[in-house]
Inverse folding.
């Protein structure tokens, strides 16, 4: 894949993350990325928490899914109608609570096949404490390929 495709996809990711209603609802923000890598921030919002201001596990799972998926999109032309993508697998390990603070998710592609992309995602607090780890299996189909 060319650096131009990765750069174009990253620009679309950065611009588009606030346009997806669910991502906007949770408050996800693009931080940075590169080919095969994306970092997102999830600011603390009371409506995403449980008792004692703990970030809800569903919000963390959504952050992991989104981050792994967007890492996969750095390898294809996001926004090009020729491509279609969806999550086909998500595994989450909760390691520690996120209490009343923002967290960050860093997703890196571990392996890219013809259609399936495997990403590892790590979620940390602002101070760097590892809170969750997940694996995302994402499928991108090139509808123009025979």
């Amino acid at each position: 894949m060319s650096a131009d495709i990765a750069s174009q996809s990253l620009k679309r990711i950065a611009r588009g993350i606030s346009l997806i209603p669910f991502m906007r609802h949770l408050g996800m923000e693009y931080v940075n990325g590169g080919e095969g890598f994306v970092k997102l921030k999830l600011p603390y919002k009371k409506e995403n928490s449980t008792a004692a201001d703990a970030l809800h596990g569903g919000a963390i799972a959504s952050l992991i899914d989104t981050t792994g998926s967007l890492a996969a999109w750095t390898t294809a032309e996001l926004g090009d109608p020729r491509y279609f993508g969806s999550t086909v697998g998500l595994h989450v390990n909760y390691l520690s609570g996120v209490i009343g603070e923002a967290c960050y998710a860093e997703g890196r592609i571990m392996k890219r096949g013809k259609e399936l992309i495997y990403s590892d995602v790590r979620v940390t607090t602002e101070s760097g404490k590892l809170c969750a780890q997940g694996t995302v299996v994402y499928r991108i189909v090139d509808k123009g390929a025979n």
Q: What stands out?
A: Residues 12 and 79 are 7 Å apart (CA to CA). The helical segments are 3-16, 21-26, 57-73.
